[in-house]
Design a protein that fits this description.
The protein is of the alpha/beta class and 498 residues long. The chain is built from 15 helices and 24 strands. The protein folds into two domains: 269 residues, Aldehyde Dehydrogenase, Chain A, domain 1; 185 residues, Aldehyde Dehydrogenase, Chain A, domain 2, CATH 3.40.309. Bound molecules: adenosine-5'-diphosphate. GO terms for molecular function: aldehyde dehydrogenase (NAD+) activity.
Length: 498
């Protein structure tokens, strides 16, 4: 067993313990007897120091030319590339996802680095004619200030990169408060930012409990913006607090993503998509497929195919090359999945396969749950409406394309969606009528690329999109600039027209 990593906060370019010296542990979810790391249990005073450091650094960082800021992020991308395997191994150990997926997590960070850094030479504004002669008008993007980045455990490298990289290129300084369960991954990531030579205070790391360090950041009067990814419940608190304290806020919360399979679909292709979408990352992606909406003409055949494929999936530790499905992140989440199985049974759904905690043999010390298919689910059941965040997929039968779209849309959430059909008219109708931030045609609900906007409608978000050029709208504000070179007072038309 490897010696636990001793993580610290990173504030003003220095690695520090929490003032109170208290620490917590993160454990391997595939083997809870293994402590992966210890990390500081930061409190309000640690957050105060981090915010002061970020505030001070902001004064000069905002004036560093954007292409020069971006060069640091290019360097982060290069160093990430060199450390990809080492980081992926750590992700597997601390978060549990299979190594191939863990490499993808780091790759997303690398892609984000190169994409965001490219923006350093764009950050385009507009020029536009003035209504007066000898007057010039333009818009420029301005940084916002100190950004608190509060992140979940399911993409412990990718999500902090998605937030920190565009924020820094735009001229903000940041404080990362990572999820408790993936403190070691966050520490290693920040070490890479440190190696890239970012000036002290530009990026800071504060470990700790959400209700303590996270809450202190959200409430802090000197934090200007909060970018949050996590549960709807915490997101509601973050949104309300930011509203009350007049902070900018970007929220990325739950999903109840559905894949539709029509009777004309390529069923093998739809099956690959369903298995990957539902059980990839043990169903612990915001974009995971948790509903399969199946046309009645193919329902039985497709269900049999899905059953067979699911029965072959192997549970195990992420760094075991035979593993298809890793553990659930922690005991609380495991119990949550288990609770939803009780609810499903009470509501009359049929457990086709799985449905139980798995603890046999090498799984005994981990948080494993069998990949599960729930049949005979109706749209009003809680398992069809609430996010489970585990390897559980609900089958819903429909009689028409219109009904399929209506059921897909019958959700409080609207992150990702997918339709398998060979009919071009249906594909375009789906693109138009599905209420979601992301729609895939003949692809699974998971697999976002960093240069496209990421986010959802309805209760999934608050109208922002991460990634793509849309991330710039989160991390900058527009300034309109007028330059009058006439040498005399020119009044705008509103003050001038009779
Ligand atoms: P999950 O329960 O799925 O882990 P959370 O929304 O609780 O999702 O956690 C996402 C992130 O939000 C984590 O970094 C967590 O520490 C943080 N967090 C939890 N509660 C709060 C809170 N009250 N204020 C600020 N951050 C919080």
């Amino acid at each position: 067993m490897t010696t636990p990593l001793s993580c610290r906060n990173y504030i003003n370019g220095q690695w520090l313990n929490a003032v109170g010296e208290a620490t917590l542990e993160s454990r391997n979810p595939a083997d809870k007897t293994e402590i992966v790391a210890t990390y500081p249990r930061s409190q309000v005073n640690d957050v105060d120091t981090a915010v002061a450091s970020a505030r001070k650094a902001y004064r000069s960082w905002r004036t560093v030319p954007a292409p020069a800021r971006a060069e640091y992020i290019f360097r982060v991308g290069e160093i990430l590339l060199q450390h990809k395997e080492e980081l992926a191994q750590l992700i597997s150990r601390e978060m549990g996802k299979p190594l191939t997926e863990a490499r993808g997590d780091v790759q997303e960070g690398i892609d984000c680095a190169f994409y965001s850094a490219g923006e350093g030479r764009r950050l385009f504004g507009q020029t536009t004619p003035s209504e007066m002669s000898n007057k010039f008008a333009m818009t420029v993007r301005m940084p916002i200030g100190v950004c608190a980045l509060i992140t979940p455990w399911n993409f412990p490298v990718a999500i902090p990169c998605w937030k920190a990289m565009p924020a820094l290129v735009c001229g903000n300084t940041v404080i990362l408060k990572p999820a408790e369960d993936t403190s070691a991954c966050a520490t290693k990531l920040i070490e890479i930012f440190q190696q890239a030579g970012l000036p002290p205070g530009v990026i800071n790391l504060v470990h700790g409990v959400g209700e303590e360090a996270g809450k202190a950041l959200v409430e802090h009067p000197n934090v200007d913006l909060v970018s949050f990814t996590g549960s709807s419940e915490t997101g509601a608190f973050v949104g309300a607090t930011c509203g009350r304290t007049h902070k900018r806020v970007c929220l990325e919360m739950g999903g109840k993503n559905a894949q539709i399979v029509m009777e004309d679909a390529d069923l093998e292709l739809a099956l690959d998509g369903a298995v990957w979408g539902a059980f990839g990352t043990t169903g612990q992606r915001c974009t995971a497929t948790s509903r399969l909406i199946l046309h009645r003409d193919i329902k039985e055949k497709f269900t049999t195919m899905l059953y067979e494929r699911t029965s072959k999936l192997r549970l195990g530790a992420g760094n075991d090359t035979d593993t298809d499905i890793g553990p659930i992140i922690n005991e609380k989440q495991l119990q949550q999945v288990s609770k939803y199985l009780d609810i499903a049974r009470e509501e009359g759904a049929k457990v086709l396969i799985g449905g139980e905690i798995a603890s046999e043999g090498s799984l005994k010390n981990g948080y494993f749950f069998q990949p599960t298919i729930l049949d005979r689910v109706t749209p009003d059941m809680r398992v069809a409406r609430e996010e489970i965040f585990g390897p559980v997929v609900a089958l819903i039968e429909v009689s028409s394309f219109e009904e399929a779209i209506a059921i897909l849309n019958d959700s409080n959430y609207g992150l990702s969606s997918s339709v398998y059909t060979r009919d071009i008219n249906r594909a375009f109708t789906a693109m138009r009528d599905i209420e979601a931030g992301i729609t895939y045609i003949n692809g699974p609900t998971i697999g976002a690329e960093v240069h496209l906007p990421f986010g959802g409608v309805k209760q999934t978000g608050n109208g922002h999109r991460e990634a793509g050029t849309t991330a710039l709208d989160v991390f900058t504000e527009w300034k309109s600039v007028y330059v009058d070179f006439s040498g005399s007072l020119q009044r705008a038309q509103i003050d001038n027209r009779s």
